[in-house]
Specification:
Layout lengths: L1 E14 L10 E4 L7 E5 L19 E5 L7 H4 L25 E7 L8 H15 L2 E7 L5 H8 L9 E5 L1 H12 L4 H4 L3 E6 L5 H7 L4 H10 L5 E8 L5 E4 L2 E5 H9 L3 H4 L3 H11 L5 E6 L11 H8 L11 E13 L25 E7 L3 H12 L9 E6 L1
Parallel strand pairs: 1-3, 2-11, 3-12, 5-6, 5-7, 7-8
Antiparallel strand pairs: 1-4, 1-9, 4-8, 9-10, 11-13, 12-13, 13-14, 14-15
The protein binds adenosine-5'-triphosphate.
Adenosine-5'-triphosphate binds next to helix 4.
Length: 399
């Protein structure tokens, strides 16, 4: 069986954000057959959108996205961002200045993580947001995909200041895809997305802003500001379906684990990943992929020279950048938009230590080979962030 997909990165997000090292900000592609053959056809539209002037101050992300048009991307994204006034989270609501009122839709997933979203939001977060001027309409998701439907149909005029997601990376990803799937996506993508992390992992918030508890997230939201984040797109060529993401796209072992883990969500909650990992490890299939990628030219960023050297040698003559092909057995392929730091775990290792969430490129990690021993060594090394030193691991920045 073969599948083909295309990745394009044609946008950036300003503000804060959405997740995954696990996640659903990441796309999970996997097969359960013993031998997998995938054709990977990736196109990354290289323009970076301008960033918010207020950075790293909140969980609000504001997207500016122009899909599939590299030429006019920069001009299409020059509009000024809404100016979020910083307010004191402790101020009394009666003193809230005119203009500081922020009307937002809150999408709450009651099933996220340990299913504590309701408790966390109503007991610890809501009052703080109210005090800082948020006027909220709260909708609880009733089924998987509900957040996407809400984001794709919401009246943008009713909630001009954004959507706050109370949940994990999956909910954020649904909102992202809902907004980008609208007919008026060019307007919708300017809507900020905020996150109150109550999910299993919330890698996006943790990685990019260093915040993992909901109260800190609420305070960050109250303070205002944006964090720019690139958006990448994964297009399944055969079906024509496109998914957007902020965190990563996984293929091979990790993708299979994420997929399998969904079977244990109800029983195990966040511990489902460990159970699925052990099961998949014990029944490890062989994964065979054909990957084509466009390495980032070292000329564009001298600091990246070392990282891309290996691949750059393979580029064609005349300074013309060409695709690099890798074919064979892989334990896994990671395509990361940020360095992917899991919010849980003792050592908090990162998968792609050089990945930047706002640099207009993706970091590709190819784990060559097959077999449990190699996989075990990879994950042990990963715990100490030594995995890139392994001879069968290739790391390259790609467009
Ligand atoms: N009411 C619901 N019932 C069942 N599934 C839901 C419901 N609401 C949302 N979902 C699904 O649950 C998925 C996971 O939700 P979410 O990301 O909030 O939590 P999580 O998986 O615990 O956290 P993380 O994504 O950080 O690991 C979402 O992608 C969504 O499709």
């Amino acid at each position: 069986m073969s599948s083909s997909w295309q990745v394009s990165c044609s946008a950036a997000i300003n503000g804060f954000t959405s997740n995954t090292c696990h996640s659903r900000n990441y796309y999970q592609h996997s097969h359960t057959t013993s031998l997998q053959s995938w054709k990977v056809d990736r196109t990354l539209l290289p323009r970076k959108l301008r960033k918010s002037t207020q950075r790293n101050t909140s969980f609000f992300t504001q997207m500016k996205f122009v899909p599939h048009c590299s030429s006019d991307l920069s001009t299409s994204c020059r509009e000024e961002l809404p100016n979020y006034l910083a307010v004191d989270v402790l101020q009394d609501q009666s003193n809230t200045r005119k203009g500081a009122v922020r009307k937002v839709l809150v999408i709450l997933n009651p099933n996220s993580g340990f299913r504590s979203s309701r408790d966390v939001f109503y007991k610890k977060v809501q009052s703080k947001l109210k005090l800082s001027g948020f006027v909220m309409e709260v909708v609880e998701t009733a089924y998987a995909g509900h957040a996407k439907v809400l984001a794709s149909t919401v009246d943008l005029n009713k909630f001009p200041d954004g959507i706050i997601c109370v949940g994990g990376d999956g909910i954020v990803n649904e909102v992202l895809n809902g907004l980008l799937g609208r007919d008026d996506f060019e307007v919708a993508i300017r809507l900020p997305i905020g996150i109150i992390p109550t999910g299993s992992d919330n890698s996006l918030v943790w990685t990019i802003l260093g915040i993992k508890d909901p109260v800190s997230a609420a305070i960050a939201l109250a303070k205002g500001g944006f964090t720019p984040i690139d958006v990448f797109a994964v297009k399944w060529i055969q079906s024509g379906v496109t998914h957007f993401g902020l965190t990563a796209s996984y293929y091979g072992f990790v993708a299979d684990v994420l997929q399998l883990s969904e079977n244990f969500r109800l029983q195990l909650g966040p511990f489902r990943y460990v159970a699925a990992g052990i099961l998949k490890f014990l029944s490890l299939p062989q994964y065979k992929f054909e990957v084509e990628y466009l390495p980032l030219s070292p000329g564009k960023n001298p600091e990246l020279k070392q990282q891309t050297e290996k691949c750059y040698e393979q580029l064609s003559d005349g300074g013309k950048v060409s695709w690099v092909t890798r074919k064979g057995e892989f334990l896994g392929i990671f395509v990361c938009n940020h360095f992917c730091k899991p919010a849980r775990g003792l050592l908090s290792p990162v998968i792609a230590p050089k990945a930047q969430h706002d640099d207009g490129s993706l970091d590709l990690i190819l784990v060559h080979g097959s077999g449990r021993l190699k996989l075990f060594c990879f994950f042990i090394a990963y715990q100490f962030c030594w995995h890139l030193l392994l001879p069968y691991v290739e790391y390259v920045k790609v467009l």
